[in-house]
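Q: I have 65 residues here and want to know how they pack in 3D. Can you give me a structure?
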Amino acid sequence: MRESFFATLECELLERRRFASQAEARMACFSLIEGWYNAVRLPSSLGYRSPMAYEAAKDTVTTET
């Protein structure tokens, strides 16, 4: 999974633009991770649910038990 993450980061963000500063690069990485990777992406390892939806379902099951 780690290799898949870094491949996605490189392909979707780093190969497509140049950054003026390290701070700009950090903000772009943060935006990609929090805005798409953790919220929208549908990995097969989580049953094709976004990580946020998976965590919400897991929390619901835990509180119901």
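Q: Anything worth noting?
A: The radius of gyration is 15 Å. The chain has one domain: 2-64.
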